[in-house]
Design a protein that fits this description.
Blueprint: E1 3-6, H1 8-16, H2 19-34, E2 44-45, E3 53-56, E4 61-67, E5 72-80
Parallel strand pairs: 1-5
Antiparallel strand pairs: 2-3, 3-4, 4-5
């Protein structure tokens, strides 16, 4: 099982989401710590960024993250599909 470490950017953008989306994020993050490649997360590597992955919260919200060591996931950002640079 992994531990999660949110960045300030992630925390800031999480607060901007609706309460319904925030509840769904909490459920998806529970899956992420157990299995980052759980099928319902639809996890994939971001092609334009080194060692960064994305997973889906729902059809419009996604989380950007990367591994930090062998037991920690750094939550980089969260938002609509236009959060990628």
């Amino acid at each position: 099982m992994y531990k999660l470490e949110p960045t300030k950017q992630f925390a800031k953008n999480l607060r901007k989401l609706s309460s319904d989306d925030q509840r769904l994020v909490a459920k998806k993050l529970k899956l992420l710590v157990q299995n980052p490649f759980h099928p319902s997360l639809r996890t994939k590597k971001v092609q334009s960024l080194d060692d960064v992955f994305e997973c889906s919260v729902n059809m419009s919200v996604r989380v950007l993250w990367k591994y930090k060591g062998s037991t920690l996931i750094l939550l980089i950002d969260i938002g609509r599909h236009d959060i990628l640079p």
